[in-house]
Amino acid sequence: MTLIAGPADASPELDDQRITAVDPLISPALLRQEHPMNPAVAKTVAHGRSAAADILAGRDDRLLIVVGPCSVHDPDAALDYARRLARHAAVVQDEVHVVMRVYFEKPRTTLGWKGLINDPDLDGSFAVNKGLRAARRLLLDIGALGLPVGCEFLDPITPQFIADAVSWGSIGARTAASQVHRQLCSALSMPVGIKNSTEGDVQVAVDATRAAAASHVFSGVTADGLAALLTTAGNEDCHVILRGTSGGPNYDAATVSDVLARLRAAGLPERVVVDASHGNSGKDHELQAAVIAELADRIAAGERGIVGLMLESFLAAGRQDLALGEADSLAYGRSITDACLDWPTTEALLDRLAAAVRTNRR
Ligand SMILES: O=C[C@H](O)[C@H](O)COP(=O)(O)O
Ligand SMILES: C=C(OP(=O)(O)O)C(=O)O
């Protein structure tokens, strides 16, 4: 159904000249009623958040590991992956706090599939209400496994639909400079990592972390989907993610120490998370394993400041192209966005990181 856009007194020649359709959007409250939070998942979410915050604050000496697919395009495959990850997270839990990357919103450099919420049928039909339902259902299913999840927040309205089920958030390289996203961070109930820019500007992430820690007043929507002014408390659990640059990696010890100095100068806690994918591996999943191996050695040797790592990993290695409308021909468990490590390699890297933490403790 397509509704007529604009208020009754709209001037058709002035208003909405480039809006071609207006369709109903489910309200956050209705979605939450359809897929309600339950006590077991709530416990997973709360524990996931507090453990991440403790690691970021140095109260817990484990590593925060955000690991999972670049994007979710097949909820069944994501749940299959989550079951394996939940089992292995329990094995390494004394050294590593595992949060599964469950990314539903993809910021594109130019154009491309924008994620499960925007286009759940992978065919350009943009069934957003269906996408929101699939996303929330999956978050609750993963939470029921006892595994906390992390999401990138891109559309400033999306958190109202799903954020109660999320333990860690991210702001991507393409939106770290955005005031809208910094304000959003100041409102979010979980720790949020903010990335350096694609070109390699790390100060933008430091500035965003500082802005997000402050209180803001901005417009958003309520659970009923009505516009409202929101006043926020500020989020002290925001932190910088080094994701590499379009010119190469930025996880070297000198850059880490430069960022720690910038954080200190800004009056912020000296901690960073390193994303082993994206610019740090040139989106080459095999290089990602080498990045993790090097970081594990540095952590074992006692390098300070790196409190967490991000890995892009799925069931099968690499990536595949999506032809819109031909989702049936996709290989199971392989990324349709950036290349991912496969599951056996991921398991081995989690073990290696756990060993690095044990060595560092000794
Ligand atoms: O993480 C995923 C991608 O790197 C990001 O969405 C940009 O992708 P694109 O350059 O393929 O559009
Ligand atoms: C889009 C992502 O990364 P970046 O913002 O670093 O490109 C991502 O982590 O999915």
From TrEMBL:
It holds the Pfam family DAHP_synth_1. Its EC number is 2.5.1.54. Pathway: Metabolic intermediate biosynthesis; chorismate biosynthesis; chorismate from D-erythrose 4-phosphate and phosphoenolpyruvate: step 1/7. Residues 52-349 form the DAHP synthetase I/KDSA domain. It catalyses: D-erythrose 4-phosphate + phosphoenolpyruvate + H2O = 7-phospho-2-dehydro-3-deoxy-D-arabino-heptonate + phosphate. Gene3D superfamilies: Aldolase class I. Keywords: Amino-acid biosynthesis, Aromatic amino acid biosynthesis, Transferase. InterPro entries: Aldolase_TIM, DAHP1/KDSA, DAHP_synth_1. It is an enzyme of class 2 (transferase). Stereospecific condensation of phosphoenolpyruvate (PEP) and D-erythrose-4-phosphate (E4P) giving rise to 3-deoxy-D-arabino-heptulosonate-7-phosphate (DAHP). Belongs to the class-I DAHP synthase family. This is Phospho-2-dehydro-3-deoxyheptonate aldolase. It comes from Saccharopolyspora halophila. The lineage of its organism: Bacteria, Bacillati, Actinomycetota, Actinomycetes, Pseudonocardiales.
